[in-house]
Amino acid sequence: MYLSQQIAAHAVNQVLLGRNLTLALPTALAAFPQATPQQRGAAQDLSYGTLRFYGEVDAYLVQLLAKPLSDDRIHSILLVALYQLLHDKADAFTVVNQAVQAVSLLKRPAAKAWAKGLVNAILRNFLRQKETLASSLANNEMATYSYPQWWINKLKRQYPLHWQGMLLTGNTHPPMTLRVNRKKISLADYQQLLARQDIAATCLAGQALVLSKPVAVEKIPGFSDGVVSVQDYGAQLAAPLLDLKPGLRVLDACCAPGGKTGHILELGCTDLTALDADPSRLLRVQSNLARLQLPAQVIAGDAASSDWWDGVPFDRILADVPCTASGIVRRHVDIKWLRREADVASFVAQQARILPNLWRMLAKGGKLLYVSCSVFNEENQGQVDTFLQNNADATQLAVDSIAGADKLTQLNGQLIPSVAHDGFFYALLQKN
Ligand SMILES: C[S@@+](CC[C@H](N)C(=O)[O-])C[C@H]1O[C@@H](n2cnc3c(N)ncnc32)[C@H](O)[C@@H]1O
């Protein structure tokens, strides 16, 4: 098991140095080819858990250390062990012993015996002083919520009624949710198909199926044939909002990896251009479309420029813009620690280049759906308000009619993240 701690510590360390967890975890796993599938699974759980609660475990560690540790690998082993001691069911003394073993596996630790003694002493101190340490952190919001303070302050200002619930929801495990291609099978029939495979699922707002526990996609009936896709319920609200009709020319402007692209096609769109600036991410769009057996014109290009455009206006545009992703932290636990407050302004600037450029490509009477997976107002209604001030030919339509959204908490197009879905923002704009 100490191998799992060691792998997780490696991944956590990389994230704290600025690397994305989706890249850091496979690298960490590759460095330990001897790990069993069970140890690999445990390492993944430990990396996600430690980063989900990094604010808390780091605050404990700061209290336990007389001075900062010079070896960041030992620091990360301690973070993982403290996460286990605070949130895992594992036996406390086993965790401490495994952390000590994990240190002995390190290559070139300055002085192995010294490092092992230190880790042992710090973790045993934690176990002895847990209550005292907890009470001294009672007023420390970073420790309580495990978010950077600037993030907590922003949500407090922007969501005086919801901020606490939003922060706590962001620390829960996200559900695995399916989108069923209703052209191929009804929701009820598909649910029965799942039940026959002993996969329990509940229907959400008559739209989506939420699995009681995650299942490997290979085990989901019909997945490889495009009968179903994995997609958060919040994201499933996008395509229906586009008010698609046969014959409309549609642009999916920031499409990769293609979750919403597939949904647009399932709703009957036959003229779809799928654009993304990142050619490597477009490979995932291509493989999604192949799985769904649905065609689109896939283009690598910049949504803030028109050099890829043939000049024929689009009737519908989906602008699922690059953003801080602050609404999907349950799934991407590293985001909380990788984002800096200044990043919000640079995403806002990027979005402010994309939106007016796409607007020029929209036909009169056409609709553009602006989407983000952020909960920060600057990227959402704030961005749209600035756009509306500068574009007299734009009207923002109400999205109260999002199918099933009456059952969700939404504030003028902002879905407040909940157990059932992530925090998306939707603004539907019509060209007068
Ligand atoms: C939120 S993701 C889109 C998710 C996608 N719509 C889906 O449902 O699967 C944002 C995407 O915007 C792309 N992107 C960023 N800047 C862009 C630009 N200037 N032009 C086009 N795409 C861009 C990124 O590569 C990324 O794939």
Distinctive features:
single chain; 432 residues; alpha/beta; N-utilizing Substance Protein B Homolog, Chain A; Alpha-Beta Plaits; Rossmann fold; 7-stranded mixed β-sheet; 17 helices; 13 strands; binds S-adenosylmethionine
Describe the fold and architecture.
By secondary structure, the chain is an alpha/beta fold. The chain has three domains: 2-141, Orthogonal Bundle (N-utilizing Substance Protein B Homolog, Chain A); 175-231, Sun protein, domain 3 (Alpha-Beta Plaits, 2-Layer Sandwich); 236-431, Rossmann fold, CATH 3.40.50.150. 46% of the residues lie in helices and 14% in strands. The protein has 17 helices and 13 strands. It has helices at 2-16, 21-30, 37-52, 54-64, 72-87, 92-105, 112-136, 141-145, 149-158, 163-169, 187-196, 238-241, 259-266, 279-292, 335-338, 341-360, 381-390, and strands at residues 176-180, 201-204, 208-211, 228-230, 250-252, 272-276, 297-300, 314-320, 362-372, 394-397, 410-411, 414-415, 425-431. The strands form three sheets. Strands 7-6-5-8-9-13-10 form a seven-stranded mixed sheet, sandwiched between helices. Strand 6 (272-276), helix 14 and strand 7 (297-300) form a beta-alpha-beta unit. Helix 9 packs across helix 10 (163-169). The radius of gyration is 24 Å and the shape is globular. The termini are far apart. It binds S-adenosylmethionine. S-adenosylmethionine is lined by residues 235, 254-260, 275-278, 281, 302-304, 320, 322, 354, 373. S-adenosylmethionine binds next to helix 13 and strand 6.
